[in-house]
């Protein structure tokens, strides 16, 4: 196996581990709540505790990857993710599970940016679109395998096994990384932005806590409005600090590249919608539709199957025609799919109420994901691929974090038929906005043969664009 192939396989396995967790958790939420109690609030926190630390620290992880070496950071992340996965599996109460999930998210923050940065650093720019398309297609197989395994474990054994299954791919990744050796730290590495990391955690933590708990306590309760105010203040302070920090965790200069700025804004709306829709549907199918966990997992598989089958093809197509059209049309197609699910009623008839919408959702996701990732990372100098990938991942995770935290505002106390319909409409609106942002903001890069300087020598602001 040559180095490029090995790097791609490792990047796929590493991202697979992080994505597998996201794939299985939604299927297991009703069983977790039935075992540990806590209602909708615990279900939200079981997802958002992970996304909170992941989204808050993924920027820091990107800087660490660029400074201390991608392989080194990957190894730390894999070991930490394995330990915290076991902690989730043996949790004895809701609070213990939430804490373990938060620690798992911190470890997960080290994985995805470094895996994508490895691809960007290893493959030439002319091959990056196809490599990222293959990475996207194969890593999304986690969403194919996850619901099946998760549902089977919940129905036949215990929800605890959905966390324990992380251990095997972690071991595979560590073994495969051994021949790559160790990378040397960057001698020009900057100081770690611990202040920025702390402000990010407090800012996101306060606002997310308020969004989740307002459904139970109300906005006027001190335990809601005080964290909300502190969170907003910390987020403002975070932006101000990053503007003046000597070594910012979030280099705001990255956003001078048009595709990077517009792509991340589109990512916010698109991934907020992805997270909201895929959080609500499995819970609704189990708690209202009466589906067993395994069938609920199977019911949400069509989008993943289509993404796995078509993701690489659309990634290659995006490399030829540019990402703008696909990033515009893809989210709008997904929106149409969610609007089709407005046919859902009780009793739930899967074949004509759910499946048609899921097929359309899958087509739109396949059109969107690889071109979106390629457009954003293609706007970043390869030497900053780690932080560029981290920013985009942070945006997508934080968007999901906020949208899931907001579900109580959308549906109230219960995710009934009317509540799901409201979720579907909000999801569609977010996706349409993401498509419009892509059309207005994204510009197709110039063909590679028109770029005079090699990618390694061009800055994010110097690459010609059509």
Describe the structure.
The longest helix has 34 residues, at 3-36. Mean pLDDT is 81; it is low at 449-466. It is built from 19 helices and no strands. Helix 2 (39-68) runs antiparallel to helix 3 (70-89), helix 7 packs antiparallel against helix 13 and helix 12 (258-287) packs antiparallel against helix 19. The chain has 466 residues and is mainly alpha-helical.
List the helices and strands and how they pair.
Blueprint: H1 3-36, H2 39-68, H3 70-89, H4 94-108, H5 112-122, H6 125-139, H7 141-156, H8 161-164, H9 167-177, H10 194-217, H11 222-244, H12 258-287, H13 293-299, H14 302-321, H15 324-340, H16 350-378, H17 385-405, H18 407-411, H19 417-441
What are the key terms here?
disordered C terminus, globular, Growth Hormone, Chain: A, 466 residues, mainly alpha
Query: In percent, how much strand structure appears in the residues?
Result: under 5%
Distance between the termini: 38 Å
Helix content: over 70%
* CATH class placement of the largest domain: Mainly Alpha
* CATH topology descriptor of the largest domain: Growth Hormone, Chain: A
DSSP E strands, number:
0
H/E series: HHHHHHHHHHHHHHHHHHH
Q: Structural class of the secondary elements?
A: mainly alpha
Mean pLDDT: 81
Total domain modules: 2
The radius of gyration is 21 Å
Q: Segments where pLDDT lies below 50 for 5+ residues?
A: 449-466
The CATH superfamily of the largest domain turns out to be MFS general substrate transporter like domains
CATH architecture of the largest domain: Up-down Bundle
Number of helices: 19
Spatial shape: globular
Give the biggest beta sheet: none
């Amino acid at each position: 196996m040559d180095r490029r192939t090995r790097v791609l396989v490792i990047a796929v396995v590493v991202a697979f581990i992080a994505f597998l967790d996201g794939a299985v958790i939604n299927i297991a939420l009703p069983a977790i709540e039935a075992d540990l109690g806590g209602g909708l609030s615990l279900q939200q926190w079981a997802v958002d505790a992970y996304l909170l630390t992941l989204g808050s620290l993924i920027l820091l992880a990107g800087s660490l990857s660029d400074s201390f070496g991608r392989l080194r950071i990957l190894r730390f992340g894999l070991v930490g993710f394995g330990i915290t996965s076991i902690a989730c599996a043996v949790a004895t109460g809701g609070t213990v599970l939430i804490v373990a999930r938060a620690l798992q998210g911190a470890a997960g923050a080290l994985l995805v940016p470094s895996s994508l940065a490895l691809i960007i650093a290893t493959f030439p720019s002319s091959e990056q679109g196809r490599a990222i398309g293959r990475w996207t297609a194969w890593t999304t197989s986690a969403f194919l395998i996850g619901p099946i395994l998760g549902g089977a474990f919940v129905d036949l054994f215990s929800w605890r096994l959905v966390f324990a299954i992380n251990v095997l791919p972690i071991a595979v990744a560590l073994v495969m990384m051994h021949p790559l050796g160790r990378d040397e730290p960057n001698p020009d590495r900057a100081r770690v932005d611990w202040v920025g990391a702390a402000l990010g955690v407090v800012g996101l933590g306060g606002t997310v806590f308020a969004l989740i708990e307002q459904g139970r306590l109300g906005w006027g309760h001190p335990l809601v409005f005080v964290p909300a105010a502190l969170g907003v203040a910390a987020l403002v302070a975070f932006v101000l600090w990053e503007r003046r920090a000597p070594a910012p965790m979030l280099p705001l200069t990255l956003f001078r590249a048009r595709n990077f700025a517009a792509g991340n804004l589109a990512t916010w709306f698109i991934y907020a919608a992805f997270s909201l829709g895929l959080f609500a549907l499995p819970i609704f199918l189990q708690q209202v539709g009466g589906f067993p966990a395994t069938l609920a997992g199977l019911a949400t598989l069509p989008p993943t199957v289509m993404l796995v089958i078509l993701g690489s093809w659309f990634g290659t197509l995006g490399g030829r025609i540019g990402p703008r059209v696909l990033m515009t049309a893809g989210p709008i197609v997904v929106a149409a799919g969610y609007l089709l699910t407005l046919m859902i009623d009780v009793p739930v008839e899967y074949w004509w109420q759910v499946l048609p919408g899921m097929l359309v959702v899958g087509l739109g996701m396949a059109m969107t994901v690889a071109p979106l990732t390629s457009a954003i990372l293609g706007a970043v100098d390869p030497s900053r691929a780690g932080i560029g990938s981290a920013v985009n991942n942070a945006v997508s995770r934080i968007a999901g974090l906020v949208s899931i935290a907001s579900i109580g505002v959308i549906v109230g106390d219960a995710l009934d038929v009317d509540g799901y319909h409201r979720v579907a409409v909000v999801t569609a609106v977010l996706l349409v906005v993401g498509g419009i942002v892509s059309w207005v903001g994204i510009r197709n890069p110039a063909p590679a043969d028109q770029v005079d300087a090699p990618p390694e020598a061009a800055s994010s602001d110097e690459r010609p664009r059509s």
